[in-house]
Amino acid sequence: MYILDTVDSTNNYAMEQVNIGHVTHGTAWFAMDQTAGKGQRGKQWLSPPGENIILTIALQPGMLPLSRQFMLSAAIALSTADWFSRYAGDETAIKWSNDLYWRDRKAGGILIENVLRGNTWQYAIIGIGVNLNQTTFSPHLPNPVSLKQITGKTWDPIELTRSLFTCIEERLKQLHPAQYDALMDDYKRKLFRFGQPATYRINGEYFEGIIQDVLPDGKLCLEKDGEILQLNFGEVEFVLVK
Predict the structure, then answer these.
(1) How much is the pTM?
(2) Cβ neighbours of 213 (radius 10 Å)
(3) 157 phi-psi bin (left φ>0, alpha ψ -120 to 50, beta other)
């Protein structure tokens, strides 16, 4: 693992290293400070210097066809939840598709960017951000939480990152066809709101829905008024009741 004092984005840095050929499978970069962190759907990930996990791992997912991209996302989300639950307990969950949750609060997120050469999935650039020691957040964030807020303890980001690697290694072992079903079953067991009535919003409409399934391609199966909607990421908003 390379430790960077400061960088604009660990994912950007990793992508640059891939493009100039300075990367092997499993190379990882940890940033003490990140000035332009990237979140899902173009959002920015802000983190005070030295307080949290800011990590990117470059993997060569040769074991997976492009049609099985979601399996990697599920494996990384599960490994992060496995790891976080060691410290935060059984109320750790995954909010579809790969946010790290504790109760109904967001503790971290994952952003996977792919490097393709023709039809070959050359690299997956996996960004993982987890709130460890941060206790003050932007008022624009609806529901953040950190491990320190949960446990009352201050944590060593480098030490905990190394323990995260062991969980990732274990889950990556499931990325072969014989383990796909078990991986998806584990994912659904950890899924926030799975099988529970809750409020959602689509195109400005609020409604009560129930998550019934997640398909192997990552689509969310959400029951609404007796109908099953198959939704891609970004098509539905989880409404948090305060």
Answers:
(1) 0.93
(2) 16
(3) alpha
